[in-house]
Amino acid sequence: MKTTMKLTLGIETSCDETAASVVRWGREVLSNVVSSQVDIHQRFGGVVPEIASRKHIEWILPVIDQALAEAGVDLQDIDIVAATYGPGLVGGLLVGLAAGKSLAFADNKPFVGVNHIEGHIYANVLAHPDIEPPVVCLTVSGGHTDLLYMPQLGTYDILGRTRDDAAGEAFDKIARVLGLPYPGGPQIAKLAEHGDKYAVPMPRGMADAHSFEFSFSGLKTAALNYINGVRQRGQELPLADFAASFQWAIVDILTQKTLAAAVQDRVDQILLAGGVGANNAFRTHLSREAVKHGIAVFYPPLALCTDNAAMIASAGYFRYLAGRRDPWDLNALPGLRLGDD
């Protein structure tokens, strides 16, 4: 029997997680299944696109079946199908898109393509259903660092974004040089817990107070030069102090610019989104500084910070309410940016 609940099936395959989720009314997660490839890619120090896309092909249908089963629904009960169409690795995006469009077409469901970055923002809607814009949102992950003003859900004013490397990308690249396992961000964070964040001077890119743009390539270069200098002198690298100092350089500039944007736009709420938003040092520092300005900071639980399909289902549902329907020939856009669609 057709359910009266408005259910969205979300599909996420933009990188190395094959994920599917069923969400009710865009806010209530009924299931959220993620099949991660981290163990597979660790031996290579990062994601190998060809391997990732082949695993997506292998796992996509079983993951969707599991998401439906855990939600206690059949495909016929689903009202909307949503899938990530960019940005990300093109092979993975194509797998998720093909699955989503095929299921929607076969059962005559509306299909909605979702911007992966927007999905991360909607993880906060799932975690904090009472959030009401206007807000400032920082989406910060391995591929993206975007600072946004949101006057309402689904509307974004891009205040600034990275000019080069994203914050998470800088974490992962330096971790690789240090020989730490993939993904590198959590490994550096763990080392940093026991280090002195002021021990090693590190630069802050685009530190101009009048700019909301970011840059992490200079920090990455400075970190590499420090590591190489220590090794060339035959000295032992102070891992904990280095990790704490490197992490602090990123946390400090992200906090400064995010708070400046919130004060400028006179909002009393900040949203964190994306994998780097799971960094405990960042969450703690930003929240502590924001309180001084009467600003509250919201972020999702760890399971919704990293790539997942619940956030895609939520974003897809609200896109659907706004009148978004996508054609069957919607293609993957690996370089898609927020605001392009």
How does this structure look, described?
By secondary structure, the chain is α/β, with parallel strands linked by helices. The protein has two domains: 7-121 and 305-321, 2-Layer Sandwich (Nucleotidyltransferase, domain 5), CATH 3.30.420; 131-300, 2-Layer Sandwich (Nucleotidyltransferase, domain 5). Helices cover 43% and strands 19% of the residues. The chain contains eleven helices and ten strands. The strands form two sheets. Strands 3-2-1-4-5 form a five-stranded mixed β-sheet, sandwiched between helices. A five-stranded mixed β-sheet has the order 8-7-6-9-10, sandwiched between helices. Strand 2 (17-24) and strand 3 (28-36) form a beta hairpin. The longest helix has 26 residues, at 239-264. It is globular, with a radius of gyration of 20 Å. The model has no long low-confidence stretch (mean pLDDT 93).
CATH top level of the largest domain?
Alpha Beta
**How does the helix and strand content classify structurally?**
alpha/beta
CATH homology group of the largest domain: ATPase, nucleotide binding domain
Q: Would you identify the CATH architecture of the largest domain?
A: 2-Layer Sandwich
Enumerate the strands of the largest sheet in spatial order, edge to edge or round the barrel.
3-2-1-4-5
Number of helices: 11
Point out poorly predicted stretches.
none
Distance between the termini: 36 Å
Helix % is 40-55%
What is the fold named in CATH at topology level of the largest domain? Nucleotidyltransferase, domain 5
Q: Work out the count of structural domains.
A: 2
- Count the strands? 10
Our Rg estimate from Cα atoms comes to 20 Å
The shape is: globular
Strand content: 15-25%
- Taking all residues together, what is the mean pLDDT? 93
N-to-C SSE series? EEEHHEHEHEEEHHHHEHEHH
Largest sheet: 5 strands, mixed
